[in-house]
Amino acid sequence: MTLVEICTCLLFLQYMSQNCSSIPYPHNVEPHSDKIPKNSDPAPTTPPTAQPEKPTLLLWVWPENYRWNFSDCKTFYNIDGCHLTDDRSLYNQADAVLIFHKAISWDLSNLPPSPRPPFQKWIWFHVESPTNTKRIPGLENLFNLTLSYRRDADISVRNLLTVSKTPNKFELPKKDKLVCWFVSNTNPSTGTGTRMKYYEDLSKHIKVNIYGKMSGSHLKDEDYYPTMASCKFYLSFENSIHKDYITEKFNGPLSVGTVPVVLGASRENYEQFAPGDSFIHVNDFPDASALAQHLLQLDKDDEAYRRYFDWRKHVSATPHLIIWNQEFITYICHACEYIGIHREYKQAHNIYRWYFS
Q1: How far apart are CA 219 and CA 211, in angstroms?
Q2: Phi, then psi, of 210 in degrees rounded to 5
Q3: What are phi and psi of 147, to 5 degrees?
Q4: Measured distance CA(189)–CA(53) in Å, rounded
Q5: pLDDT tens-place string over residues 207-256
Q6: What is the set of active-site residues?
Q7: Which residues of 87-109 are buried (b: 16+ CB within 10 A; e: fewer)?
Q8: Are 249 and 274 in contact (CB under 8 A)?
Q9: Hey, what domains does the chain have and what are their CATH numbers?
Q10: Reported pTM
Q11: Contact, 139 vs 108, CB < 8 A?
Q12: How far does the chain reach from its first CA to its final CA, in angstroms?
């Protein structure tokens, strides 16, 4: 290239650098605009972010061999956060395994195989009180998560009351019975001695309508809640006394419009789950005779009795179970909901030291 040609090129480049800013943009697009000119091809769209795959929860053993349709979690409780299965062939793909404590053999031979997949969590599933819990040796440090009635469990299977800003509509059910108790377990070795002794003292002063095996009769599941609702008071007597051990025996009468008369944890513990004026605690009276006199007085005083339902104006209680005696459904659905939300690693150390404390 000659010197003249080189100079000509340099002059052209200088001219272009000085005048490129004056090149007009299309009339319908401003400088630095993200708008697309008319008649131009649209920019490629970013594909939607893929939803994370649902984790798999493997139910290792059906509790008490009670079986149901896993779709009930979605149907009844609107829980659909995981893939529930009892297919053990999926063990190596399962994100979590739910293991029912009462079904574990003493020699641990029916536990899932080890070593477990490194991403997998084992959930200790136990809702009995410490009084009725066998300390199977070797379980203390096997689990990642705990499922229990206790508030400090990883998965706490409590049915909590809900508060609303607007007044609730509540109509007191028709009552034709004063005091009722549904009871089947009277075996003192399971911790029932205290409640049986209190019942015997109470029944000397007031009539108690008994249902269940103790009475030699059996209510149909669909009759359980309607019968409970027809009673003014229900004996919510737990079989043993432990922190947070407050079961469906308490939530059931609350939800159907019956006043629970509780024997179990302290009043302060109960008030962590329900308003203090929604129930009667046996500890508020010196003996069963005094409690009976209080119940008989309330039976004559409608205004005083109705005050036990003032809390319903702003607090809602729903049945713990859709159908009585299906509590295992709610527990397993809660586990499904939990692992669908919580993907982080966790480990439970010495579950017995925690549970029996």
Answers
A1: 7
A2: -100, 135
A3: -120, 120
A4: 47
A5: 999 998 777 777 887 888 999 999 999 999 999 999 999 988 998 899 99
A6: 128
A7: eeeebeebbbbbbbbeebeeeee
A8: no
A9: 56-159+328-355 (no CATH), 162-319 (3.40.50.11660)
A10: 0.78
A11: yes
A12: 94
d(CA 161, CA 49): 36
Q: DSSP letter string over 294-337?
A: HHHHHHH-HHHHHGGGGGGGTEE---S-SSTT-HHHHHHHHHHH
Q: Which residue has the tokens 């409640």?
A: 195
91 pLDDT exceeds 90? yes
C-beta of residue 59 within 8 angstroms of C-beta of residue 85: yes
Amino acid in position 105: S
Return the CA Rg of the chain: 32
Name residues whose C-beta falls within 8 Å of residue 78's C-beta, 6 or more positions apart in sequence.
none
Per-residue pLDDT of 109-154, as tens digits, reads: 999 998 999 999 999 999 999 999 999 999 999 999 999 999 999 9
Query: Residue 249 in 3-state DSSP?
Result: helix
**Number of helices and strands (H, E) in the chain?**
10, 13
Using one digit for the tens of pLDDT, what is the confidence trace for 315-347? Answer: 988 655 545 557 789 899 999 999 999 988 888
Question: Exposed (0-12), middle (13-18) or buried (19+): which is 76, by Cβ within 10 Å?
Answer: middle
List C-alpha distances in Å: 256 to 175, 231, 271. 12, 10, 19
Distance CA 133, CA 131 (A): 6
